[in-house]
Here is the input.
Amino acid sequence: MEIGGEMGNEVMPEPAIIAENVTKRFGSVLAVNDLSFSAPAAMCFGLLGPNGAGKTTMMKMIYGKSRRDGSPPGKISVFGWDPAVDELAIKYVSGVVPQENSLDEELNVEQNLRIFARFYGLPRAETQKRIAELLAFMELSEKRTARIKELSGGMKRRLIIARALLNNPRLLILDEPTTGLDPQVRHLIWDKLRSLKKKGMSILLTTHYMEEAFQICDRILIMDKGRRIVEGHPHELLRKHIEGYVLEIISREVFQGIASGIRSENIRIDESADTVRLYANDPDVLRAVAHTLEPGDFYLRQANLEDLFLKATGRALNAAQ
Here is the structure.
């Protein structure tokens, strides 16, 4: 379902990342399919999509861990560098937060950071100063000598973000950084990412949390089966591609009891396995329907990015999920 991009008259900064007609295959699977986008510098650009959409594959091609296909291959530029040729240069100006907690369990917090700093050739004095700053920034100073085994899941994720920031990168790449974390830790990480963005850092993010994307992304690209579906500022995408209000009805049986009285010309009906959602731009239209229902059988709310995501990608699970 191609529903377009949103460029309008907005003035965009110079791009940190440019991707043009990028393709990647794994055997018979087309993981990334002729994908193009531009991620502005000093902003957060989000790649969203179901499992198997090609988000992580695209990220790996950006920082040189995977090579793009095609003859000729599409184009990827990171601050003017091609990851197929300038992989090392891109790594020196990037920090990567992978999905996995790839920490050395036998070392403590500070030792994990010190070892990683050697990869960037940071002098000892600068390393110690940088580690102290980052542990304070990620609120981990009291855990400086704690072993990794002693840390909670949220502490480990914050430590991995601190590790990715050791070289003071121009580009921070985060692959589902808050999956599985409790709301308090998630909001703390959002605050830290906003702070980095204000300082001019470019951020590339993948996430399954639509609220996360809405909170911190300046632009998002929703992709499915390797292809671009929709791109733009979250607020603009909601305004242009989804109705403003949603009435959720808790079961199909409840909906069937009132379906005959609904005027469908003003309402879009979306039925899933259990829940029925009625979408409309006029909340009064939905309130009129809600008045025919019993309390507890419905929930009236504003549409959100998750509604747009499901409209764009569908409710059926991909084979990869």
Observations:
- Residues 138 and 192 are 7 Å apart (CA to CA).
